[in-house]
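Thread: Modeling a multi-component assembly for a lab meeting

Hi all, long-time lurker, first post. My supervisor asked me to bring a structural picture of a complex we are working on to next week's group meeting, and I have zero experience with this. I have the sequence lines for every component (1092 residues in total). Could someone generate the structure of the whole assembly? Inputs are pasted exactly as I received them:
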Amino acid sequence: MKVSLWFQKLLNKMIDVRVLDLSSIRDSLKKGDFTSKELVKSYIERIEGSSKLNTYNTTTFEQALDRAEISDGKIKKNEAGPLEGIPIGIKDLFCTQGVKTTASSKILENFIPSYESTVTENLFKSGMIMLGKLSNDEFAMGSSNETSANGAVVNPWRSRNSEKELVPGGSSGGSSAAVAASLCPLATATDTGGSIRQPAAFTGTVGLKPTYGRCSRWGIVAFASSLDQAGPITKTVRDSALALQAMAGYDNKDSTSANIEVENFENYMNSNLNGMSIGIPKEFEELDLSLDIRQNWEEAIQWYKEAGVNIKSINLPHCKYALPAYYIIAPAEASSNLARYDGVKYGKRVPGEDLDSLYKRTRAEGFGDEVKRRILMGTYVLSAGYYDAYYLKAQKVRRLIHEDFLEAFKTVDAILTPTTPTTAFGIGENISDPLKMYSNDILTVPVNLAGLPAISIPSGLDSSGLPMGIQLITNHFDEKSLFKFGRLIEESRVNIEMPTDWWIKK
Amino acid sequence: MSENNNRNPRFIIESPTGDWEVVIGLEIHAQITSNSKLFSGSSASYGGEPMSHVSLVDAAMPGMLPVINKQCVRQAVKTGLGLKAEINKYSVFDRKNYFYPDLPQGYQISQFKHPIVGEGIVKVTLKDGSDIFVRIERLHLEQDAGKSFHDIDPQSTYIDLNRSGVALMEIVTKPDLRSAEEAKLFVTKLRTILRYLETCDGNMEEGSLRADINVSVRRPGDELGTRCEIKNVNSIKFIGMAIDYESKRQIDEIESGNEISQETRLFDISTGKTRSMRSKEEAHDYRYFPDPDLLPLNLSQDFIDEIVKELPELPDDKKDRLMEQYKLNSYDADILVSDKKYAKYFEVVAKGRDPKLSVNWISGELFSALNRLSLDIDQSPITADNLGELIDLITDGTLSGRLAKDVFEIMLETQKSAKLIVNEQGMSQITDESSIEKLVDKIIDENSDKVAQAKEKPKMVGWFVGQVIKESQGKANPSKVNELVLKKIGL
Amino acid sequence: MTISKDRILKIANLSKISISEDQIEKLEVEISSILNWVETLNEVDTENIEPMSNSLTNFLQMREDIVNDGEKRSDILSNSPAEDESFFVVPKVIE
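Re: Modeling a multi-component assembly
Sure thing. I ran the full set together rather than chain by chain. Output:
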C-alpha cells in the first residue's frame, strides 16, 4: 500500500481515494504519506466528475481547502485532533453554520443557519473537514432518495450487464452513494425508520444507527423526534466505530440526550466471540424476503456458528406490527415538527392575500408529495376522535415491541437479521406506490421504535451482483457489541468491490 | 364539594321573566418571575428592544430543542402549595398545535393530561365579611406567545418574539364564582397570593396576569348553561365590566328566544362590550400529544420539601395573626395584608407601639403620600423606623397630631428622622399651661369683642382655639388650648 | 377505513396546506389505503399497556435559571423573507 501510494504521489500527486477509508487515511496523514490538502484536492476532483450520481446538494470546496491547510499545519506541529484533516460529507439535514442547509426541500431552499449542529461541531472539533452537503429524501421521508428537491440520487452500483439506474436507498441516499462511490470516506446520516441502514445495505457500505440518545439531535432538522438518530455511513466497521466516537456525546441542549460515557469503540474490534450468543427472530424468517437475501442470512449464521457463537431462535411476536405503528407515530410527530415551516421566519414564502393563504400556498408549493402525504396522515391520526384509536394505540404497540426486544436480550447478546427484504430497485419503480415503498423498512423500523442500536454491514452480493446487507441489533447503549460482532461479517464475506467507475466524467 | 348549584344563589340578576344566576369560571395566565424563559436561556424580563430577548430556540429555527428551567418548575410548585393544592410529582408536557404568527413553532408547549399541580382552594372574603371558597381545578406550565402589532403598518402585522417562550402558569378555577364582584375579589386575592410567593409580580399593565373568563347564565337550580369564553382581559376593572356586559347579553339573547352558541369572545375596552372572534370550531382541534423532545417531569419529595420550607406566611394566616397579635379589626388587617410589604412595614412600626395608631398613620398619611408621589412602599422616603419614631413623639406628647402631620411632610421631603427635624426646627409642642395661658390671654385681649359672641355661640370657641394655635405657629397642644380658652371665656 | 373528501379538506386546513381538486382524489385513495393498513394494529390486545413515547427511561433534566442566550436578532432575522430589521412581518391579521 505504502509503495503504491508513494509512487502515485510521485506520478501525479492525485491520490486514488477508492482504496482509502477513514482509518487508513488517519494513519496516512499521521505518517505523512500525503497531506490533507492533497487528499481534499483528490476528493474534489472525483466529486466534480461524479455529478451523474447527484449526491451533493452543496459543495464547500474553497473552505475545505482552507481548512485542509490549517489541518496540515496542526499535523506538522503535532497538535492534530483525533481525526485531523479528514474530509467528510454531511447529510443536508444537519445545520451547518454559514452553509446552506435545505433538508433537500424547496421550503428551505435558501436557508443558511447561523449555528452548527452539535454532531457536526463534534466532528469539526476532532479535525474533520466538510466537503459539502449531501442529498437526502426530503425532510428524511423516504426510502429511495427520489423525493429530494434536487432530483434523485443514483446508486453507483448497477446490476451486472445492465445500465438501469438504481436507487441508493433513503432517506440518506446521498450519504450512502457518496461513501460507496468514494466521494468521501465518511458521511453523516440520520435514521428514523431505517434511513441509515437501508441505504447502506443498498450501496454496500456500513451504516450505524446508534442508541436513541447516544448522539445529540440539536441542530438536526427534526422529522420524528422520538425516533430520529444521527449516525455514520462508512466503508468498514472499524471506521464506523471511529466515527461514532467522534459524533457521540452528551449534549445539555438536547433533553433527550443520554448522559452516557463515550467509549473508545475501536477497542472492541478485536474481540473473541466464543461463548456469545445471537438470536434469530422466528417471525422475521416468515417475511417475504428475496431468495438471495435469505441464503445470505443463512450464510452469516454459519459464520457465527463456526466462530463459536451460540445461535438461538427468539420470538419478537409484535414486530409484525412495527411498520404500521411507525407509519402512525412518525407522521404524527412530523406533522407537528414541520409546522414551523410556514413562510414567516425563514425559507420559501409564497405570498397570499392574507395570512391563511400565505401559509397554505407556501406549504403547498414548498413541500413535496410524500412530505405532504405524511403531514396529512399525521394530522389525521392526532385529530379529535382519532387520537385514541391510532396514535395512542400505536404507542401501546410500541411498548409491546420494546418489551419483546428486552425479553430477547435476556438470553442473547445480539440479534441477526437481513437489513432489507430486497436489494436496490430501479429509480421510478416504486415511487407511485407508497405502501410498497414503506415495506422497504420492515426489518429496520422495529429497532427505531425500541430505540435500540443497530448496524448494517455488507455481507455479500446477490445473483445480479448487487450488495446485500446484514443487520445486527444489540441492547440499549451496547454499540460495542455491534462492533464486536460486526467484524466477523467483514472477514467472512466474499470480497465486495464495486466493478467500475461507470458514472465518472473525466 | 358540590357544584354550588342551589336554589338560594348568592347573587341574582332580576328580570321581568324571572331571576337569573351567572356562573363564572376563570383561566388565569400568570407570568412566572424568573430570569430566563421556560425552555430557553433568553431573558424573560419585560420590555427590551424588539427581538432582543429571543434565542434560536424561541424563534423555532430548524433543529432547535427545548430544555426546561428548574426555577420555573419551582415557582409552579410553590404556587401550587400557596393554593393549598396537590402537587403532582409526575407530569407531562404536551404540544398544543395551531398556526399563528406569534407562535413560531406552530405549537405551544403546555400540559394537557398530566399537569404539575392538581386541585386546590382559595378563600375569598366578600364585602359583607362572609367567605366563599373558590376551588382550583389545576395549574399547569406553558409557554407564552410573542406579540403581534397591527398598527405599525396598514397592510401588515409585525411580530416581536420577546415574550415568546416566557413561562406561564395557567390557573384554572372550577365554575364557583357567581358575580362580577366575586370574580374581581378572587383575582385580587389570587394576585396577592402570587405576590406573596414572589412567583408572579401580578403586574397587569405589563401583562403579567391575564384572565380568560368563562361566563354562562341559568335559572337558579338549573343545569349549567352554554358558556362563552372572553379572552385576555388584563385588568380587574375590565374583568368586572366584561362579566357584567356578557351576562346581560346572554340573558337578553335567551329572553329573545335565541340559544347561546359556545364561542370565544373579546372584550373591547373602548365600548365596554364583548364581541365574537372569527374562529371556527374546527380550528380548535389542538391535537394534543406528549412533546417527544421532552421527557416526563418527575419531582422528588425532597424537591418539594425544599420549596415548602421557603413558603412565606400567606395572606390568610397573616391576617389572622395580625388580628390576634395586634388586636386589629378585619378592615385594617385586610389593608395591611393586601401586600406583604405593607404588613412587614407595619410590624416594624407597631413594635412596642400602639398598633391602631400605627395602622392609621400607614393607611392614612403614608399611603396618600405614596400615592401622590407615585411611589411603592419600598421606595418610601419615610422608613418604618422613622415613622415609628414619629409616633413615639406623639405618644410622649412632644408633638400634637397636627404638628406631627407637619413633621411628616418634612420627613417626606428630607428623609430625615422626626427627632432631628423637631430639634432642628424647634417644633415641639407647647404643652405647659403657663405658656399657653399667655397666648390665650393675648388672643382674648385682642378679640375682646368676640368673647361675648362666644358666650352665646359655643361654636366660636373653635375660632379662638384656632387663633391661639396659629399664634403658636401650630405648636400649642390643641386640647390644652381648648381647655384654657373655655376657662378664660367662662364656659 | 376510508377517508372522505370532506375530512381531507378539514385536515388540509388544519395542516395549512392547500390542495387542488385532482390532488384530493389521489389523496383519498392513498390515505385510505394507508389507514386500512395501519388498522391491523387493532389485532393487538393492548389492554392495560402503558403507551411508550420514548425509549429513554430517565426523567427530564432541568437547567439553572441563568440568562445565557438571546441578543441574536440579526441571526434570527437573517433568513426572514420579509425585509425588516426588527420584526417578522406577515399580512395583516384581523382578530
